Every structure is written in structure tokens, then in C-alpha cells.
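Duplicate of earlier report; DNA 3'-5' helicase input re-posted below.
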Amino acid sequence: MPSYPLNPSQQEAIRHTSGPLLIVAGAGTGKTTVITEKIAYLVNEKNIPAKNILALAFTEKAAGEMTDRVGALMPDGGLDITTSTFHSLGRRILETHGLEVGLPNNFKVLNEIEVWLLIRQNLEKFDLDYFRPLGNPTKFIHALIKHFSRCKDELITPEKYLAHAENLKLDSDTVIPVKTGIQSPSNVGKTLDSRFRGNDNKNDSGEGDNESDALIQKRANELSSAYHLYNQILLDNDCLDFSDLIFYTVKLLRERPNVLKIYQNIWPVVLVDEFQDTNWAQYELIKLLAKGRENAMQLTVVGDDDQSIYKFRGASVANILQFSADFPKSKQIVLTENYRSGQTILDYAHNFIKLNDPDRLEAKLGLDKKLTSATNKTATVKFETLPNAASEGQWIAKNILELKKNENLEWGDFVVLCRTHQIAEQILPALLRHKIPTVSGGESGYLRAPAALNCQAAFKLADNYHESPAVYRLLNSVIYDLPYEDASKLALFVKRKACSLYQAVKAGQTGEVKLSEAGEKIAVKFLADTNKLAIDAKTEPAIKVLYNFLENSGYLKKLADYPEKNYRDIMALQAVFDYLEKFQADNPDTSVAAWMRYYEFALEAGETGEVEANIGEGVPVLTIHSAKGLEFEYVFIPSLVDLRFPSTNRAEAIELPTELINEKTLPEGDVHLEEERRLFYVALTRAKSGIFLSAAKDYGGAREKKLSRFVAELEKTNNVKLAEQIPSKGEKIVREIHQPNTAPLDKQLTTPESFSFSQISTYQTCPWQYRFKYILHIPTLGKGVFSFGHTLHITLQKFYERLIALNSAHQGGLFDAPRVTPPTPSYQEGDKTIIVPKLEELLELYRANWQDDWFYSAENKKRYRADGETILKNFYKVNSEQGWTIPAGLETGFRFKVAGAEFKGQIDRIDKLPDGKIRLIDYKTGKPKTKLAFNDKLQLLVYQWAATSISALSAMGEIGTLSYFYLTDGTEVDFMGTDKDLEKTAGTVEEIIKKIQNQDFTATPDPETCRYCDFKDICEFRR
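Output:
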């Protein structure tokens, strides 16, 4: 339940069920509360089945929050409600029905860096001249990727683009061959860009400029052909890009009315959060689901045009402006009661954003969007001008410290919101100097962090001992920490002998270079480590080569001994290993040499390494875009100077032709300036009690900065005087010229917000092992047996999904079968025929989903792969003889609260027994057990506990049995938990979660456990 009573507008929005609804929800007006309460109302009061409700959000985090809040309102946790992002929804639909539009069975979705690498590898196939300068052939790859993505956001097919290029050719009176000297867009200039966007550019005589016409045609021909080839390369590699998930879903639902009908029947109720951030393709998807029932469908969209800030991602504010026209009988409800900010802040923000009229809903639809504070907060807005960036950071830090002390606040009650990451980097040193801990949202740059550079230096040494820069980096890193005097002696030896630094270190080992006692030990250790490194590199995959080096050198142990101080190095290593795992999964050649080529390409593509850190609490220093949906007591917005905020308008490197853009409602004002105003509005409305604005005259560079126009606009629209003249250098605060001390502060380790059985099991094995794995995130190597187990799990999941689809189609159910070779086997169960996919289809699924990683040798991998086929053949044979079952559930997820935290899990399979009860099944690939101790049973007992606690699971039927199915020999072990077992299960799980929350990680070593522990070589408790 919300922390405040629902107001009349919120109640009206929740109870509206007669046709489409547009909820205009201003900042802080409780839109998420309205969405989640509306879902609960539809299920609990209007008796709409939860499985018939689709709730769409824009990020996985937002979808997760919606799921959690709905779960808290529903007796069964809202398990059957589909809460999803647009792209996850598209993926779900395409994985089931993608074959209908020619997509591969098991497609992989590539991110932008992976797309860049794919284009880079196939660059010679593209017939590019204009967009592939000879001196820098990869220059325009990013621009092409963004252009292709925008095409898909606008649902522009390759055929439509090719037709556009052909029309340009037909419309031209004369085509003059393009001169060979004109190859780069820089030679064409802005005139060509404007012509390409559809503007006429005539010469003085009124005739078209034939040479420009030829260039426009050349550009259009290259782009349309490249777009067509790009899509073909994706499909040839069984890949889709991110935009394809919506693009092909819309294509599917447009071209296959039977499939559209399926999903219209599944989801007669659709709710869309942050509707103002939808692009054209996403809105078309929404309209398709509403097609034919525009006035009856339960369609609710929630948004605020004043908070539309993602145009750079293709979002179209026109969608929310167009909704009432597309759904003329829709109702509009405006939420204006704000539960976050003091009235002064709301007035400042509203008066400011009205400068975007008439391109706002308030002006277009005659709505009143002025927000009224429901709080009694006394809010303030302050502005300060400083001489330089260091002074500005110092001013922010001192205000944070003073407010924290005077008002007894936490670090998380403050935020510094920046227009760009570069501005954030200028603020951080001052906060660190004042010992203010900081956190960043979506930390990136880890692949260029010192720890990552150390890893790459190790790889270079594995490839070539005589890479002197790599030797120098490692010797002077925290890994070896060679004394300065010894480093100087080695450097002098290199100069005198004209040799490599590695040879100098060998001379230090033999005594030819007189090193200190410590230096000589380091030289011996370094040479031993690098020798092992080179040996490993000959036979082992790159990820294992690196792990062995980090372990042998003692670096992992150093990090684990002082995790609070080393948290950034730990995060950097996590980013490197994440990237190595991706590389290993995607490439047949996993050698060090192949990795180094891949890594260099990735850096060239712009990859920086990003991980979601869960370590530390402090003052968030965020970009405004990443602060959307958040709130804080006090907000600091620095660098309010011209050309920084508002930023300069950087047009897309390759603009879409106007003729291909679908958007009907074009703004009357400056599109970029209006977007920047909305961004500033979002920043202002994050604050509860106060806003601190600041600007400086000197941020480096030759010219002094001018105040942002937004400061003047705030003053004018609110009839106040905020800004004095910016002081010149030397006034108020003397410029700091010393190098700031930016050494990281100690970080408080934080525990997970959600738990799983795997975590419980790891803690039972050893709490110190749990700390290494789930708190510190120390990288580990995988194991071939786990890859094998995952392969069998996903194979059986997809096989049974296919079996369900076949029999649903046969029985006239919701899901049509994908168009594949018709199966012939069937099994008769009473008077019901069960259609079963062929054995070859099961084996083909196994081959397509084979996980190729972590086997210790080629022979080991070959044996596992053969064993898997044998296991599946036996599985198919036994079920064909004993009778197939259509599962009632596959990978059935659950979540519920334990000790105030979320506990999540997935049940491999749920079968319906002849007596109507259900059977919970967990697949095992380990050695079969005939006798089970309590801890052996615990996983299925947790599932039984969940199934009896959550109404959506208990509604499937009473539990008849719990089964471990051992795939290796086909045996099953069945049992049923007693009330005493379940009581003990709940007590065990709750006790462990509480210990984790209290950070009780007391080690419980024993020789057998330590022998198989991934962290044994860095653990001081090892036995």
C-alpha cells in the first residue's frame, strides 16, 4: 500500500475500465503506485485473470520494481502477470514465432559493441566508398550502426530504403558522375546534409546542383545497400540487433494475423509506463495489440511529455501528443498532486518548462499540469557562481557536509546531477578530498582501469617476453611493487646494454644487476610467474591463462584481503572476466592471440567495460538521464554554463531522410533546446527540499565561460534574481593548482537484496566462500560439468516447450505451432493423443544449445558431448515406452519474502499426476543418490515451501511428490516433505539470510570442502 491515501485523481485512474486511458502523471505524483494499484484492482475487484495482464516498462530495473510492487499487493505475488520491457517482450514473441517471418531458431541478440565487431569483420563485403575513407576505414561504423537502428525504430525495411534511393535517381533530371576526389563526407559539408534531409537546394538559376544531386544519390545508394547487406549478415550469423526485437515483432504481427490474435487473446489488458519515451516502432506494437478493439480494450498509457528525455535513443515525444488522436474515445486523467517536492521547487520547474509551449500537452489539449505539493516542506533554490571547477567542487562538498550534520541526513539523501560524465569526473575529486564517499550509477570505464591494464600487460607478456612496456607496468603495479631504486637500476641496464627490460630482470636474478634483497625476490617471482604464463598460453584458453596468472602472482589474494580498499580493482577484474567469458562463448579460437585481436577491436569500437557494482554507499554522482525516477532531499546541479547545459546540438552523423520518417507531429520550436529544457526539468524535480545550482568561469581552456541561458530563463519565468556576475580568477576562492588526492575511500560492503537457493547452498558449504563469490565477486573459472549440465537443462526446456506448442495447436489452444517439419511420433494416453517431436529434433536442440566452454581438454569435451547424446536418446526411449507427459509448467519462477528480503527461484518442471496432484521436478546431472539427507532434499523442500505459500503455484494443484531426475542414468528419487521438514526448511533459509544480512561470514573450513573450493589459493583459512 502507498505511504499516503490515494487522491481522487489516482482513484479515478485506477478504477477506469471502459476503454483506453491516458494518464498524464507529473513528476512525483505516484504514477508507479497508480499502475500497480490498478493491476491489483483489475485482478482483485474486476476478476481479470492475472495471466491476461501485460505491463510494459522501459528498463529491466523498472520492470523489476513494478513486479515487486505488484507482488506486494497480490496474495500470490502476482506471478502470472507479465511485466516486461518492450525488448524482452519482443524476444519472447520471436523465440516462439520467429520462424513465421524467417528468423533463425536460436538467434543471438548483439549489443552495439558486438554489432561493431561483426561489421568490422565483414567490412570488405560492404560496397562502401563515401562511408569508408581509405585512411580510416572504420571511421563511420558507429554512425552506420546508429543509422540502421534509427531505421528500425521507424520500421523502415531494407526494401523501403532501396526504393527511396531509386526514387532519388528517378527524380533527378541529370546525373553527373561523382569525381573520384570526393570520398569523405567532410568534403560535402552541411549543404549535403540538409539536401539529404529533404530540403531543396537550388542554384541562382533555379536549377538543381547536379553534382550535389549525384552525391546525394551516391550516399543514398550506399546507405540503402549497406542496410540491406547488414541485415543479411545478421541473419547469416543467426543474430539480431537490439532494435530487431521490436522491428521483427511488428513485422510478425502485421503479416501473421493468426499470431496477432494469439497475443490479443493472451493480453486483453495492457499498461505502458513512461509512454513519452516510446519510439515509433514501440507505439506501433501497442497499436497492433489494440487493433480492432480500440474502444473496448483495457489500454492504459502513463507518461509525462515534460519528462521525455531520450530522443537520442529514438524516443518520440510525438507519441504521447498523438495518443488522443489515435484513440479519439480515450479518457485523459491528469495527476498533479506531488508527494515529493516543496511547492517552491514545483513552481520554479513548471514556470520554466512552460517555455516549451506550444509543443506540450498542457497547451495542445488544454490540460492543467501545474503541480501542487502534498508535503509541508519548506523548499529552497540556491545559485552560486564560482571562479573555477575546483572551487565549484569545494562549494558542493562543503554544503553537503553542512547539511548532513545540521539535518542528520544520510549520504544517499544527496545527489550531484551532471549533464555529462565529463562534468561528473570534474566534481568527484573535491568530494573525495573532503572524505565524502561517492557512488555512480552504471559504473563504466573498467576496461581502462589500472587492474584491467595489468591484465592486458600479462597477456602481452604471454605472447612476447620482450614487451618492455608490459614488463614495466607489471613490475611497478601493486602485483609486484618493485622498489623505485631497483626499477632505476634496471632502466639504466637497459640503456647500457640496449636490451629488453625482461632481459634486465633476468640479469637482476643472476646478480649482474645489483638489486636490493626485496628487488631480487621480486625478480625471481616475476620470472617464474611469466614463465608459467607463457607455458599456459600455448595450450590453455585466454581466460584460464589470466586466472592462473592472477592466482599464482598473489594478486587475487591481495584484493581479497582488503576488499573495501580494492573495490574498484575487483570491479575492473569482474569486467575483464565478463568480457573474456563473452569472447569465449562467441569464438571457436579462445587463445591468447585471438583474445588480444578481439580486445583491441573492442577498445577501438568504444567498449569501456561496465559492471553493476553492489559495493558501497555514498553520495550518488549521476548523469541526469540515469537519475530518472529517483528522488533525493537535496539536488546539486553543477556546470550551468553555455555550451555545457544546454549542450550543443550534435546532429546525427547520418540523418534519416525526411521522406522516410513516420512522425506526423513535428514541433514548432527548437527540438534540441526543448529536449534540454525537459532534461533540466527532470533534474529540478528530483529534489524534495532543496536545489543547489552552480557555475564557474574557468573549466580549463582559453576562454571564460558564460552563464547557461537556463539560469536567465529560471529568473525570468519566476521573477527572481539568482545569479550575480561570475567572479574572475582569484576572487572568493584561490584556484587550487595541486594534484587532488583522489585515492579511493574505504567502502562498506553491502549484501544482496535478493537470494536464491544457490546462495543458501554456498553459505552452507562455507560462509567465507559465500563472501568471496557473492559479496566480493572475485572472478572464478567455470567448469565443464556445469556447461554440460546447463546444456542438458536448456535442451529439455526447449524440447518440452516444443511439445507443449504442438499439442496446444493440435487441441486448438492459444499457441500455434511454429512452421517446422511436422512430427510423426505420438503417444496415446487414454483417449488423448500426445504429439511428440522427433528424436532428431531433440538431438538438434542439443547441438544448437551446446555450451562449449570450460572443458579441460578437447577429449574431455568430446566425451561429454557424446555422453549427452546418449543420455537424451535414453531419455527419449524411456518416455516413449512409459508414456510422455505434457508439463504443467517449465522453468516456473517464484518469489516471496523471507526475513524481509526477496527469495527467488525456478522449478525445472511441473507435471500433472493422474490423481490431479502435481509433481515438482529438478534435473540433476551429477552422480545419482539413493539416500538423501536433509541438505540433499533442501532444494526441493524450498520449492515445496514456495508452492504451498504462493497462491499462483498452489492453484496448480496439491503437491503429490518431489522428484530429483538424474539424467545420467534416468533414475528418479521421489519423496515428500512433512510439515516438520517444511518448518525446518523455513527456519534454515531464514537463519542463513539473517546471517548474511548481518555480514556473519565465519569460515567453516574442512579438508574436503577446501579441496574443491574455487578460492582455496587465496583463502587464509584453507585446510
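The two ends are 51 Å apart (CA to CA).

Merging into the original ticket.
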